[in-house]
Amino acid sequence: MKVLAALSGGVDSAVAAARMVDQGHDVTAVHLALARNHAGQTGSRGCCTPLDAKDAKRVADVLGIPFYIWDFSERFQEDVIDDFIAEYAAGHTPNPCVRCNEKIKFAAVLEKGIALGFDKIATGHHAQIKLIDGKPQLFRSVDHEKDQSYVLSVLTSEQLASSLFPLGDITKAEVRTEAQARGLLVADKPESYDICFIPDNDTAGWLNKQIIASAGQIIDAESGATITTHQGAHQFTVGQRRGLNLDKSAPDRQARYVVGVDTKTATVLVGPERLLSIKTVSAYQPKWTSGKMAVVGSDVTIQMRAHGAQLPAKITRADDVIEVLLNESTRGVAPGQTLAIYDQDRVIGSGTITATGR
Amino acid sequence: MPYFDHAATTSMVPEVQKLFVEHLTQAANPSSIHNSGRKARAIVEVAREQIGRALKTHPSHIYFTAGGTEADNLAVKGLYWSRQKDKARPRILVSAIEHHAVLDPAHWLEKTSGAIVELIPVNQKGVIDLDELTKLIAKNETDVALIAVMWANNEVGSVQPIEEIVKLANAHQIPLHVDAVQAIGSLEIDLSRINLDSLAISGHKIGAPHATGLLVLRNGFKVDPVLHGGNQEPEVRSGTINTAGAAALGLAVELAVAKQAQHAARLQALRDKLIKEISSLVPDCVVNGDLENRLPGNTHFSFFGASGDSILMLLDQQGIEVSTGSACSAGVAQPSHVLMAMGVDLFHAISSVRITLGTSTTETEVNQLITKLPQAVATARLAGLNVGKKEAVKE
Question: Touching check for A35 and chain B: CB below 8 Å?
C-alpha cells in the first residue's frame, strides 16, 4: 500500500511512520507547513516551526523514506486561524485542532495525497481504527490518558476509511521507548499542548490583536445588575472563573463564573457555580464517524472537551441537529466546542455545540 | 538517475576531484614561512594566476572565499562600508531578481546601517529595465554606494545586459557588483572587454568542491572585510586559505572557460528540444524568462493548475530530479521573488518547475523527462493547488 505519513517533527508521528515502514508499506513522509509567520516563535513547539520541519526531515532520513514539505499555510489560515478568530469574536470557544483535522489533515491533505496516487494517510494520533462488519470504526486509544479520538470525531466514515493510526494500540510511554530503540532523536521531545499558531502561548493577548473588540458590561445573571465593565466579550469563556477582575464580591461571598457571553451586545453574564449546571446539549453540523446516525433514545457517553470527562447521556434528537440529555448535570460548557458521542470506546459522531440547557 | 538540478549544484569534474584529493593529503598552511608553507602558497598563487588568465584579469584582483554567498556578502557589505568613508552614500541599487546572497545583505544593511535599498525593476522576461536604472542613478549619482546586478538569473535563466550596465556604472563611477555564479561556464566572461568592478563566482556550480569561491575586485574599489582575523587575503578577508580548494577552483575555472562555447552549444540544443517537446505535449504551460537571452541549460515552466511541488514529487518517485525554484526557497515554498518581480500572479508562480541541464546531462535523460513529465503534470493537476478559496493576493 502507498502510505502518506504526516510527520510533524514530534515523536508520535515519527513512530507511526516507522511502524508503517515495518509493515512493508511504500511510505512517503510529508511535513505540513501550516503557520506562515514564525515571527516571535523560537525553537521547537512539537509542530509547525522550521525546527520541527528539520526534525521531521531527520526522522525520514533515519527511516529511509522520501520527505517533502507541503505548504498548506493558506488553507490553514482560512479554515483554521480565521475560523478561530471568527468563533471567538462570536463568543464561542473553538478547538483549532479539531478544525485542522476536519479541514486540513483529513480533507485537503488527504485529497491531495489520494490524487497523487497514495492509498492512505498515516498520522501519529492516539486512536484506533477497527473494522466492524467490514466498516472502519474509530475507537479510543488503549492509552486513555493520551487518547485523541475526541479531536478525530469530526472525521466522516469515508475519511476514516483512508486513514491509519498506527499508535492506537500502544501507550505514550511505549511510543517513547520505541522511538528510543529505533534511534530517533525526537524520542524525548516535549509534548505540544499549545495552539501552534499562537507564538508565545498568550491566546488572550493574541486574540486582542486580531479582534476589534467593543467594551461592554459584566452583569450579574441573577439580579441583572451591572457589576463592572470589560474591554471585549471575546476574552471570556463560559465556565471561566479567573481573570474576571470583579470589583465587588458577590453578596453571598461565593465564587462567580462566566455563565454567558453575548458578543452582539458585548455583555458578559456572571453568576454562581450552580448557574453553570446544564443537563441538555445541542449541536449542529453533525458528522457520523461510524457511518450511521446515532439512534434516538439510545444510551451513549459524551465528551465535550479534549481530555474532558466521559459523561453518560441519552440521545434525544439526531438529524441535522443533535440533542442529548445528560444522566447527571455537568457544568460550564461553552458554545463552539465539539460534542463527541461514544458507544463505550467507539466514536459514533460529533457536532459543534450551539446551546446548552438546564 | 536523471538529475535536472544543475543550477543548484553539479558533480565535480573528475580531473578537479583528483587534484583536490591530492592536495588534501598535504599538511601545509600557505601563510607558513617554512618549505611546506611556501609550497602551499605556490599552489594558491598558481591557481590565482590560472583564474586571472581564464577570466582575463590580473591575478591580484582575485580573492578566494568559501563560496558564492560569501563573495556576494563581501562585495555588498564590503563595498557599502568602504564607500561611506569619505561621504555618506546610503543608496544600494539592486536588481529585483538578485539571488538572496545579494538581496539579503542589502536589506540587512538597510536594517542595521542606514542603507536605502532601491530595487531595479525587471520586465516580464526577467531582464532589468535600463531606463529605470538610469533614472535611479540620475536621482542623485553621488549618494549611490553600489549597484548589484547578476549576470544571469538562477531561477529563470534570463541573461542581463551586463555590458550596458557596466557602461552606465562606469560613467557615474559607481562600483558595480555582478553575481556570475550561474554565468561562469555557460556564458562568455571576458573581463578584459567588460570593465566591471566586482564579480562573484562559486566553485560547486562548475565542478569544483562546495565551499569554494572567489571575488574579483578591481578598478581601485575597496571592500571592508566581513571576516576579521589573520588577514590572509590582505585587507579583504581573513581565514586560512583553502589550498586544495583554491587549486581545485583554479582548474575548474580554467576548464569551464575553455569548454564554455562547446558546453553551451550542447546544452542549448538539448534545452531547445526539451522546451519544444514539452510545450507541444503539455497543454496550458508557459516558459518563464527570456527565450532569446537565456542560460543554455535553463528551462523554467509554469504548468497552470498544477502545483510545482506535486510535479517535483511525482518525478522524484520515478528517479527524475527537478526543482520548484531556487533550492534556497525549497522547503517551505514561498512564491519566488523572481517570478513576482516579473509580474506574474501567485497561481503562475506556484505552478512553476525549474529544469536545469549540466555536463552530465544526456539526450537519453532528456528523452526520459519528455516521456514522464506530461503524465506527472496531468496527475498533479488532479491534486490541484494548495491555495485558499479567497482570491490569491500578490505578496
Answer: no
Q: Give domain status of residue B7, yes or no.
A: no
Q: Cα–Cα distance between B26 and A330 in angstroms, integer?
A: 79
Inter-chain touch A116–B386, beta carbons under 8 Å = no
Give me the number of domains chain B comprises.
2
Nearest chain B CA: its distance from A337 CA (Å): 24
Contact B332 A53 (CB under 8 A): yes
Beta-carbon count within 10 A of A307 CB: 12
Average pLDDT over residues A293-310: 94
- Contact (CB<8Å) B379/A75: no
Q: pLDDT tens digits, residue range B263-303?
A: 999 999 999 999 999 999 999 999 999 999 999 999 999 99
Among residues B208, B237, B258, the one where a domain terminates is B258
Distance CA B175, CA B45 (A): 26
Interface-testing mutation among A68, A83, A103, with chain B (most B C-beta atoms within 10 A): A68
Closest CA to A144 of A160, A164, A126, A129: A126
Instruction: Give residue A169's pLDDT band: very low, low, confident or very high (50, 70, 90).
Output: very high
Query: Does B118 lie at the interface with A, CB-CB under 8 angstroms?
Result: no
Which amino acid, residue B247? A
B389 touches chain A (CB under 8 A): yes
Instruction: Establish if A312 belongs to a structural domain.
Output: no
Q: Do B154 and B69 reside in the same domain of the chain?
A: yes
Q: What is the CATH number of the domain that holds B307?
A: 3.90.1150.10
**pLDDT (tens digit, 9 = 90+) per residue, B292-348?**
999 999 999 999 999 999 999 999 999 999 998 644 444 455 689 999 999 999 889
**Is A232 part of any domain?**
yes
d(CA A194, CA B331): 24
Decide: helix, strand or coil at residue B276. Answer: helix
Chain B residue numbers with beta carbons less than 8 Å from the beta carbon of A104 are none
ipTM of the complex: 0.88
Residues B314 and B335 in one domain: yes
Assess if residue A21 is contained within a domain. Answer: yes
What are all long-range contacts of A236-243, with beta carbons under 8 Å and residues at least 24 apart? A236/A91, A236/A261, A236/A268, A237/A93, A237/A261, A237/A334, A238/A93, A238/A276, A238/A332, A238/A333, A238/A334, A238/A335, A239/A276, A239/A331, A239/A332, A239/A333, A239/A334
Q: What's the domain range around B361?
A: 260-383
Q: Is the pLDDT of residue B167 over 80?
A: yes
Same domain for B106 and B226, yes or no, is yes
Q: What is the mean predicted confidence (pLDDT) over B241-255?
A: 98
Contact flag A115-B314 (C-beta cutoff 8 Å): no
| Residue A292: inside a domain | no
A174: helix, strand or coil: helix
